[in-house]
Amino acid sequence: MNYFTKMRGGGTRPPRASAKEIALSWLGAFLAIAAIGLLDRLVVDETATALLVSSFGASAVLAFGAIRSPLAQPRNLIGGHIVSAFVGVSVAHLLPTPLWLSGAIAVATAIACMHASQTLHPPGGATALTAVIGGESVRQLGYSYILLPCGIGALLLLAFAVAFNNIPAKRQYPLYWW
Hints:
Elements: H1 3-6, H2 19-47, H3 55-65, H4 74-94, H5 99-116, H6 123-133, H7 136-141, H8 144-165
Helix pairs in contact: 2-3, 2-8, 3-6, 3-8, 4-5, 4-6, 4-8, 5-6
């Protein structure tokens, strides 16, 4: 197949989600992000460390909107954030500037490491990038960024996904743990 011909696509798009599926995805994501955000407010007052990172928004899309995706399963959700946080912090320490270069290296290396560890989770790219471009408050966390907010926050999101997604009879999450 010719290079440009491949760009046209050719597969069929997935079926439309039902109104019930849309509502469940919305409610689950809302409850999980709201709870982590509320805990963030309570914890930040005590420790000045944030629990809520923007990449959790993308994780919520997978954990509540695409629960059958291999990229949404616990190994990928937790491992992807932890591996990517480690990569991002390491790159931020080794090559702090220029940000465009260190950001590109962090994201690309996080993808490679997630592939190698079988923890590919697309929001992990944002987790790695945040470690590089997140500013002084993120940089000051150093390697603790891996545990808090990334590890603990991902575990909280996973706990909500497991509890919520198994309430409806026709939803099951996870499909596998490890």
